[in-house]
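Annual report, structural modelling task.

Input specification for the glutathione complex:
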Amino acid sequence: MMKLLSSPLSPYGRKVKITARVKGVFDQIKIEQADTNAPNNSVLKKENPLSKIPVLVLDNGSQLYDSHVICEYLDSLKPTPKLFPAAGAERFNTLTLGALGDGILDAALLLVYERRFRPEDKWVASWMERQQDKIDESLLHLETNPPLWGATPNYGHITVASALGYLDFRHEGKWRPKHPKMVKWLDQFASTVPAFGETKPVA
Ligand SMILES: N[C@@H](CCC(=O)N[C@@H](CS)C(=O)NCC(=O)O)C(=O)O
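The model returned the following structure:
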């Protein structure tokens, strides 16, 4: 049985859980909670020197990270639905959309960490604005070009949906009023991919 080190609140972990459910391999994975807030989690560090989740530990004990790599591995376990197109423009557009979703997540997480791990008198407004700007520009880009899917959403769509879910969860859904097309997009994603609702973080 594979083992996934994650947390119910991790948006990167959510990408992996959605992928595992969509691929029909979720029952082959045992989820183990990992605390990334603790300063030195030796169990996690043993599996990933970066001390980040998610980590997928395979039956032979080897570890896969980060979330992109894990999702691509899970995709390789079954032929359909194909979440990572094999080649060409379709593949690279999927990877780029995934990178955009991950970039939104990275900036959104850094904003959370600034408040969580640094005292308020050390918060740097210009640095936080810089992260917020990455989120705002990416959302504007998505709103202008909502990323359509064909028969089924792919890895890029799953990543963007997880990023928007994180903006709902940790950034009070402030993105919604200015991005009506992406609000609709996320509703459509949620009704097409039940795993999205099934993995919703609960504080
Ligand atoms: N690029 C990584 C990012 C993973 C990540 O930053 N996970 C967070 C939890 S949501 C974490 O482990 N943070 C702990 C830390 O940065 O020390 C991925 O896609 O898996």
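The first strand starts at residue 2 and ends at 6.
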